[in-house]
Write a structure and sequence with these properties.
Blueprint lengths: L1 H7 L4 H5 L25 H8 L8 H7 L17 E3 L10 H8 L1 H4 L10 E3 L8 E6 L6 E6 L4 E5 L7 E5 L6 E6 L5 E6 L3 E6 L4 E7 L4 E6 L6 E6 L4 E5 L4 E6 L6 E6 L5 E6 L11 E5 L4 E4 L11 E4 L5 E6 L3 E6 L6 E7 L11 E3 L5 E4 L5 E6 L5 E6 L5 E6 L7 E5 L4 E4 L1
Antiparallel strand pairs: 1-6, 2-29, 3-4, 4-5, 5-6, 7-8, 8-9, 9-10, 11-12, 12-13, 13-14, 15-16, 16-17, 17-18, 19-20, 20-21, 21-22, 23-24, 24-25, 25-26, 27-28, 28-29
Length: 424
Amino acid sequence: MDLLCAAYGNASDDDQDQPKRQKLAPSSSNPPKPYLPPPINDCSQLQTQSSLPGRYISKRQRALLGVNPTVHNPTPALVSPSVSLSGSILDTDLPPNILSLLRNKARAQRNLNLIPEGLSVAPSGHTKAVNAIQWSPTHAHLLASAGMDHLVCIWNVWSRDQKKARVLNFHNAAVKDVKWSQQGHSLLSCGYDCKSRLIDVEKGFETQVFSEDQIVGVIKFHPDNSNLFLSGGSKGHIRLWDIRTGKVVHSFNRNLGPILDVEFTIGGKQFISSSDVSGSNVSENSIIVWDVSRQVPLSSQVYVEAYTCPCVRRHPYESTFVAQSNGNYIAIFTSNPPFRLNKYKRYESHGVSGFPIKCNFSLDGKRLASGSSDGCIYLYDYQSSNFVQKIKTSDQACIDVAFHPVMPNAIASCSWDGSISVFE
């Protein structure tokens, strides 16, 4: 941010108020007329233009608006009023041992079989339930969270100073999901205001808004093209958006119930959708595998049990994916045709009980973690499906869990009471 402020502060007011004047030749008898800005008669228009976030206000405009020209701090203009800067997003204030692990990925992942032993950090800030969390893939000290209190928070988890680095208040309703871009400098969020919003985290600007005719419940970036993302909503519509144009590339419609989750397969040529089937008897539409380019379902009879699945996740390396079932277990499927359910293996010990409980794989895919309605994280061995460990997080339902992208023994969780916890 200091670099940005310096870049904006190099030019003086006089340099930006008017264009460069032509040099007068010594023999010129008709010097060019001085530049005069066009008159502004509509003060309300001037006030509207000057209120745009980040817009430069010249000395003449400040005089018309009655602003004291001697008080000029360019820094507030760089941050939207919908962003609260509580702390720093830099890693300069991290403890040396954490900083060393984050910068030395090989050392951090020396033992992938480590299991979290206890609570490390418990940042607080949300006043209502937290629906989703995600670690930044490139700035792994940052964790984003989406809350029912209309807020998206960015946490500098191990900072010795203020852990709440950013509070993004662009949504005017509850936020359902949040995802980092692959580059790590942008954040995509969606919610009950029927919009997906792309935020530049460093500058604090909302760069794009994608409006829909439905509550947007889930978003997912394409694994190989960060300019594309999927959105799914309350009317059963799934859309593939192109950030470069701000328009829908493909639409996937099949008279589905509300979309609960979407997940790309490896390579991004197909994706899996999960929809709510509680209001119908068409249970075969609970999980559908779609062809992205042809916009057609490859299979709609993947999971025929009459349970809604609030979460689907693909394995990071193998051709399988799992689905969290309201039947209080996690089912496993092949992600290649014919997309069969494994009838002999499931992950069961935790409870779902109608909550939007999510699950996630570890870095190496050997462990599977799930939230639970009893406020605990449940860890399973992926190959054997055996229960490994239970970690208490809250007195209310644990909604989402996320393994750290660098340190295998760190896992974050969020709960229905608004709490966030990081275990190591």
